[in-house]
Amino acid sequence: MIPYAKQDIIKEDIDAVIEVLNSAWLTQGPVVKKFEDSIISFTGAKYATAVNSATSALHVACLAMNVGPGDLVWTSPNTFVASANCALYCGANIDFVDIDPQTYNMSIESLKKKLKNAEKNSKLPKVVIPVHFAGQPCDMPEIYNLSKKYNFKIIEDASHAIGASYNFIEDNPENPNNKLIQKIKIGSCKHSDITVFSFHPVKIITTGEGGMAMTNDQNLDARMKLFRSHGVTRDENFMTHPSDGAWYYQQIDLGYNYRMSDIQAAIGFQQTKRINNYISRRHSIAEYYDKSFQDVPINIPWQLPNTYSSYHLYVVTLDESINFEQRSRIFNLLRAKGIGVNLHYIPVHTHPYFESLGFKKGDFPVSENYYNRAISLPMYPTLLDVEQDLVIKSIKECFA
Ligand SMILES: *Cc1c(COP(=O)(O)O)cnc(C)c1O
Q: How far apart are CA 370 and CA 364, in angstroms?
């Protein structure tokens, strides 16, 4: 079976792990710091907090923003459940903003409408979590402007999107005929408060399991580091009284053990060096798929102008005329041919747990219509040309 995603582990990764295993320190230590620093240089953000998963990163991000009972958090229904669960862990309420039918990201139009209504009913969100689906950046400058207007915080769920970027276009105050174009990397937090990455093996780079939260806000960073390790501090500045001595620490909040180990960070540090190579290979694969599907009745992933996707996923959608049963038949046919197709995502609000919170089918129709027609094809840097040809041939056979 050709999987839809696969990690790439090379000798340098393995050697780095062995080096840590032979060292005096296994849990969070100097290599975690080195990995955090490497992602800081890669993204341009000021601070980084490595944790044991993106789910934990989303949780500490919400905690750092004091998300709690009575608060509202909004995210996209077209995501992994973790983007929504982080709010529920904090006792807050979750709601969703339907997706754009072209990008499958949170729709800016729907967000604007929902904010306007929420303002009338005094039910504005405390935090909005846009998800860069498949690696394609959301329209962050627009979401950022809305956050200033409606006073909410932004956590980017960039689990798919390390290595992605977008052009930020502004008027040039010195020359009105000229625009200023700035390339913004996902993770720089130029238009958000916190950005979260995942290092699960299917994602762009891996640490086995792992995640990271980036920010430019020193206070948010300090709080995320506190919540990652039991709410315990050794910094006298945060203690209620001077330290009792060299052994002393204080628990000043209720935190967790969400630490990443140096063993994991060693893999991550090596993988970071290869992000740009991985992404350009993913782009070549995407271009070849795009070209090959020109005369096949499927929609290739549409790209928002001025964005550079990390292509975590390559999702095609079937024609509007194709129903759920026909999609299932094509999906099963591809699996039978050894193509490990997958589906991203089951709209979060349609899961039984979310139905128990009051959501129901029909609440976010664009995400549901998308779900009925989507198929994720194999996409990872070590996908061989012959394997990709087999995927394309199998797709074409489905429509023959
Ligand atoms: C993978 C993923 C997560 C969770 O990541 P983990 O590191 O497995 O916790 C959250 N959000 C999105 C969009 C993801 O794809």
A: 10
Q: Whose CA is nearest to atom 5 of ligand 1?
A: 54
Give residue for tokens 């074409």: 396
Q: 376 near 330, Cβ under 8 Å?
A: no
Task: Output the tens digit of pLDDT for each of the chain's 400 residues.
Answer: 999 999 999 999 999 999 999 999 999 999 999 999 999 999 999 999 999 999 999 999 999 999 999 999 999 999 999 999 999 999 999 999 999 999 999 999 999 999 999 999 999 999 999 999 999 999 999 999 999 999 999 999 999 999 999 999 999 988 888 899 999 999 999 999 999 999 999 999 999 999 999 999 999 999 999 999 999 999 999 999 999 999 999 999 999 999 999 999 999 999 999 999 999 999 999 999 999 999 999 999 999 999 999 999 999 999 888 888 889 999 999 999 999 999 999 999 999 999 999 999 999 999 999 999 999 999 999 999 999 999 999 999 998 8
- Residue 159 Cβ inside 6 Å of ligand 1? The answer reads yes
CA of 245 to the centre of ligand 1 (A): 40
CB 317 less than 6 A from any atom of ligand 1: no
For residue 271, give the amino acid letter: Q
Please choose from 159, 258, 313 the residue to mutate so as to test ligand 1's pocket, defined by most ligand atoms within 8 A of CB.
159
Query: 3-state DSSP call for residue 183?
Result: strand
- Would you say 327 and 372 are in contact if contact means Cβ atoms under 8 Å apart? yes
Nearest CA to ligand 1 atom 2: 159
